[in-house]
Specification:
The structure is a single chain. The chain has six helices and 33 strands. About 10% of the residues lie in helices and about 40% in strands. It is mainly beta. The strands form eight sheets. It has a six-stranded mixed barrel with strand order 15-16-21-17-20-19. Strands 25, 26, 29, 30, 31 and 32 form a six-stranded antiparallel β-sheet that branches.
């Protein structure tokens, strides 16, 4: 299992009509019930693709492939009603999701029929028939939506009960705007910022430069006490859609950013989730250059803006700096086009105060600016006290 921008990506195979198989990269996403394919993969599989003529519709569909093979195990897909296919230009037909090197996903509607284990410390994904995986660690009963197999876990934040989804396909965790604002007002000393950088830079949605991000002291999540969790406020329109799809009252979701030190087991047959601690390591997702990026279908990365740091833009802006609409061409001379979102953010990360040379393209002209790695979302108050005592 490759962990790319906190997303689990695996190798798989799909049978072709001529009897051969094609190797593909698959995104394992238990937080999405829909099967998704790239247009080029659907074409190779000779699936009947249909698209709406509505100019606002950016999606096509096809029947699902008959099966996908993971680790030699055949997983039928015929139970899925249809596969969704992005309506991209011909030169981007192989793109399923910009910024990801995948052509198909494994959604909750498929995973629900199996035992599933995400071993984040070991970079390993396991799937087997119910009862074949020996789950270990602490367990909790989960609410699993009967229609789409989305998972909610009983949770507490500051002794108040909530439901929070388990979404290991998400690179970051989200709380509803109402809950986020309530916690931010009650704890002005918790590190906060505006602007999606690092793992909070999910897809490069237009409003990501305005997203609010915060480090939460502690979340009681099922059997776990998750400390020092970075969360983003869930914009109301997306929260409403998410809550409707969840089918139960929910306050947000815990993404993989909070669980990278764990092995997470999904026992769908018994509505149980297992967490086994694997290591102690703090991922410096927010020691980065403060850009918000949008991955494009052609492999380029558009700059949407620069996050503020200590009350001013974290990177030079204006005619001699960066501007929204610029393209990031290279980091320290290494081209970024065709890279994944995770690879680019690895290039933009580092030790605070470290310098990076960014090659920027604007209106056909390339130039270089010096950018500085910043320590966004610093320590929580209790962490600062521990450091002082040391």
């Amino acid at each position: 299992m490759t962990i790319d921008h906190n997303r689990a990506v695996i190798n798989a195979e799909l049978p072709l009509p001529d009897g051969s198989t094609r190797r593909v990269r698959a995104w394992v996403d238990n937080g999405d019930p829909d099967l998704n394919l790239s247009r080029s993969l659907a074409t190779q599989l000779q699936l009947a693709v249909s698209c709406n003529n509505n100019d606002n519709d950016q999606e096509c569909s096809s029947p699902p492939p008959p099966e996908i093979i993971v680790g030699g195990m055949k997983i039928p897909l015929i139970g899925v009603k249809q596969a969704r296919i992005p309506l991209n230009r011909v030169d981007a037909a192989s793109v399923l999701a910009p910024g990801m090197n995948v052509e198909i996903n494994l959604p909750s509607s498929i995973l629900r029929h199996y035992d599933v284990l995400f071993d984040f410390p070991g970079h390993k994904f396991s799937i087997g028939a119910p009862g074949t995986i020996h789950f270990r660690g602490e367990s909790t009963k989960a609410q699993i939506n009967a229609e789409n197999a989305l998972i909610q876990l009983p949770s507490q934040i500051e002794k108040k009960k909530y439901n929070l989804a388990l979404d290991l396909g998400a690179s970051i965790s989200f709380l509803s705007e109402e809950l986020f604002d309530k916690l931010a007002a009650a704890h002005p000393d918790w590190p906060q910022m505006m602007g999606a950088v690092g793992s909070a830079n999910v897809w490069g949605i237009a409003d990501e430069p305005k997203w609010k991000v915060m480090r939460v002291d502690r979340v009681h999540y099922g059997p776990l006490f998750l400390a020092n969790i970075v969360v983003v406020d869930f914009p109301k329109d997306r929260m409403d859609f998410f809550a409707k799809r969840a089918g139960v009252p929910t306050a947000g979701l815990i993404g993989s950013n909070a669980l990278l030190n764990y092995r997470v087991g999904l026992d769908y047959a018994h509505s149980t989730v297992y967490f086994e601690f694997g290591r102690m390591f703090n991922f410096p997702d927010f020691d980065v250059i403060g850009l918000t990026l949008r991955p494009e279908n052609d492999g380029r990365f558009t700059i949407l803006g620069a996050a503020d740091f200590e009350g001013k833009p974290s990177e030079p802006t204006g005619p001699d700096g960066i501007q929204p609409g610029d393209h990031l061409i290279a980091v320290d001379g290494i081209p970024v086009q065709g890279s994944t979102m995770g690879q680019v953010w690895n290039m933009l990360g580092g030790t605070p105060e470290q310098q990076r040379k960014l090659t920027i393209e604007r209106s056909g002209r390339e130039f270089i600016i010096a950018a500085t790695v910043q320590h966004f979302l610093g320590e929580l108050p209790d962490e600062k006290e521990r450091k002082k005592r040391k």
